[in-house]
Amino acid sequence: MTTRMLAVTQPLTLDNFPAWAKQFVATLELELIEQEQGADYYQWRVCFEGTQLFLCFQHYADCAWLEPLRREEQAVADWLAAQWQTKLLVE
User: Mean pLDDT for the chain?
Assistant: First the structure.
């Protein structure tokens, strides 16, 4: 499985990730299922048209990414990341 980092317009931090993630979820019309937070990470479980994914943020890596729960759904994660990138370029 490949990890495709999500484009951002400002650096993400533990403080601003929740607001950014809410915008990400709303913009891509994802369903938020579950939220988890650790000392240095966030992991939100989301669903898009039946495909469940993790929206992840790692403080020490300074990045966010989508990770499908099932390997065979990587194309959905890639498509969503591309849609997000397109929406950022348009705005």
Answer: 93
